[in-house]
Design goal:
heterodimer; A: mainly alpha; Rna Polymerase Sigma Factor, Chain: A; B: 229 residues; mainly alpha; 11 helices
């Protein structure tokens, strides 16, 4: 029996340490999904808390036979992210014009850091900027596939769309992201 | 079959992940090798996918898990070392528990005392049931013989005392019963003196016999022979 399923069963029996363990095991994963989708650490933190609150309330509805716990957790997170995206759509349109300014600066600073670690974190930041320019459908598909390393079948379960759509969104998302990075003057290798 | 740029875009991810049939893969490569634009696209997407797979996860804020736990199962009180220690000692000092502990300690001390186990020269063999019983038995006999000796000694002492000084308070009681036979005079009569001497001689010889009987060997032989006498 996989450790997540066992922890979930213990949680449903009311064992508090099991819930604590479950939260600690998956906090980073959920936070990263939120962070990559929103591009804002503070927002991602609030959303992560909201995700676990929802998980805590809806844990009895999780069926281990229907898929692994991380997939179910990603699905809960993704639904919350989509809700959040719709809620904050109006605020974002006004912000997007101001957001375009720092990207020009990033292009200049990218040539100055030879350190590998700094390069990695810089790529991470540039990637974040590029991701925020993708449509939410393409963004979530790319994040789940290339940053969270989910299989196509798992992504299909999370997004609740046919596998052909999953493939197409991932493919279009990658091409779009590569174009945005090229526009930003970033060349990943 | 010859592929165009639109097809390259459409099947790019399938090609990268090796999901194209050999014929399609061949057609894909054939077009890319002749089209500089598609070459650049394939190179950039491949680089992007590789970079993203190598990216580490961003560490979450350090107190995020605690916040989540507080919001779900409520804040948990963290008990520090000193609180735990003082809590423990307070629990030990509750009257019922403290009394129990003291009683227990007293019982242990008494049992060890009785069995002759010396704390200063404690050996594991002392706890062996056989030697424990042996020691306890020996100790009990010692105590018994000592108490028997003490009682006997006390009896002898009183006997000797009573012989040496025949109860002085007995005399004032006796005269009223026989007032005419034994007229009391301030000076003792010769008859009375000789009577007293005789009494003293008899008691002295008896004391000597008793002292002789009180030799250690006699005591160790046990009080039963003397008590029966």
């Amino acid at each position: 029996m996989d450790p997540d399923a066992q922890l979930v069963q213990e949680c449903l029996r009311g064992v508090a340490p099991a819930w604590e363990e479950l939260v600690k095991r998956h906090t980073r994963r959920v936070f990263n999904l939120c962070y990559r989708f929103t591009g804002n650490p503070a927002e991602a933190e609030d959303l992560s808390q909201e995700v676990f609150l929802r998980v805590y309330r809806t844990l009895p509805s999780y069926r281990p036979g229907e898929g692994a716990f991380p997939t179910w957790l990603s699905s809960v997170t993704r639904n919350l992210l989509v809700d959040h995206y719709r809620r904050t759509k109006r605020d974002r349109i006004t912000d997007s014009i101001e957001d375009a300014m720092p990207h020009l600066e990033e292009r200049h600073s990218s040539a100055r850091t030879p350190d590998k670690l700094a390069l990695a974190s810089e790529l991470s930041a540039q990637l974040q900027t590029a991701l925020s320019r993708l449509s939410p459908e393409l963004r979530e598909a790319v994040i789940l596939r290339d940053l969270q390393q989910l299989e196509y079948e798992e992504i299909r379960a999370v997004l609740q769309v046919p596998e052909g759509t999953v493939k197409s969104r991932i493919n279009r998302g990658r091409i779009e992201l590569a174009r945005v990075l090229k526009e930003m003057g970033v060349r990943p290798h | 079959m010859v592929w165009d740029c639109a097809q390259i875009e459409e099947w790019l991810s399938d090609w990268l992940e090796g999901r194209l049939s050999p014929e399609d893969a061949e057609a894909f490569s054939a077009h890319v090798s002749t089209c500089p634009e598609c070459q650049e696209l394939v190179a950039s997407v491949r680089g992007l996918v590789t970079s993203m797979s190598q990216l580490e996860m961003v560490p979450e804020p350090p107190d995020l898990a605690r916040k989540i736990l507080d919001a779900t199962i409520g804040p948990r009180v963290k008990v520090g070392f000193w609180e735990r220690w003082t809590g423990w000692t307070a629990a030990q000092l509750r009257p019922r528990l403290a009394m129990g502990a003291v009683t227990m300690a007293a019982v242990v001390v008494i049992v060890f005392q009785v069995s002759g186990v010396k704390a200063a020269r404690f050996r594991h063999v002392d706890l062996n049931p056989v030697s424990f019983f042996h020691n306890t038995n020996r100790q009990a006999h010692l105590v018994y013989s000592r108490s028997v000796r003490f009682v006997n000694d006390l009896r002898v002492v009183y006997e000797i005392e009573s012989r040496l000084q025949p109860a002085p308070e007995a005399e004032p009681i006796e005269p009223p019963s026989l007032p005419e036979q034994q007229p009391q005079t301030p000076g003792a009569s010769p008859q009375q003196k000789s009577e007293n001497d005789k009494h003293r001689d008899r008691s002295q010889s008896r004391t000597a016999a008793l002292v002789a009987m009180l030799s250690p060997a006699d005591i160790w032989a046990g009080g039963s022979t003397r008590s029966s006498r």
